[in-house]
Amino acid sequence: MANIIYVDDRDNTITYSPSNGWELGGVNREYDNTTHGSILVGTPMEISFAFQGTRVMVYGTIAPAKDNNIIPPVSYYKVDNTPAVTYTAPAIQNTQYHQQFYDSGNLADGVHTVIINPLTTQNSTLWFDYYTYLPSSGLFK
User: Fold this and answer.
1) Among 4, 21, 26, which residue's Cα sits nearest to residue 128?
2) pLDDT of 91
3) What confidence score (pLDDT) does residue 66 get?
4) The pTM of the whole model exceeds 0.90
5) Which residues contact 67 (CB under 8 A, 6 or more apart)?
6) Which of 84, 90, 113, 116 could make a disulfide contact with 76, Cβ separation 3.0–4.6 Å?
7) Which residues is 49 bridged to in the sheet?
């Protein structure tokens, strides 16, 4: 079985759109000490990347609801041309790191494109940390 591949939010294969809509963040409890946070309210935003494999999982940080009336983030996930899957983070009291926002389940072996659309409001920020994927069995040992 192939090893899981980890890809940090600052990897150059990840595209953030619009480029000025993302705040760089991170603390030592996050993967590679980095995150990207959605900051433009009322503007369509997107994270996209491609991978070659059979499954993808997306992770991030959830801020506590008690800080500045934070609203748990909502985000939408699409792999290839599948319908979007919605993730609504839970309202929590303490910051949670390495939280799974999305799991594609098993996919056909091949190249896949992932698109993430956060729903950014004045009190809600998506903090994207990293994604993991199972690579194609024929390419990795």
Assistant:
1) 26
2) 87
3) 63
4) yes
5) none
6) 84
7) 114
- State which amino acid sits at residue 64: P
pLDDT of residue 10: 97
pLDDT at 140: 39
Instruction: Give the residue carrying structure tokens 């950014």.
Output: 120
Domains and CATH numbers, the chain: 5-135 (2.60.120.260)
Q: How far is CA 36 from CA 1, 55, 59, 72, 109, in A?
A: 31, 22, 11, 16, 29
Q: Which backbone phi and psi does 33 adopt, to 5 degrees? A: 60, 30
* Residue-level length of the chain: 141
Asked if 14 and 140 count as a contact pair (C-beta separation under 8 A), the reply is no
**pLDDT more than 90, % of the chain:** 75
Place of tokens 């994207």: 128
Counting residues of the chain whose pLDDT is more than 70, the rounded percentage is 93
Output the DSSP codes for 21-87.
GEEEE--TTSGGG-EEEE--TTS--EEEEEEEEEEEEEEEEE--TTGGGPPPPEEEEEETTSPPEEE
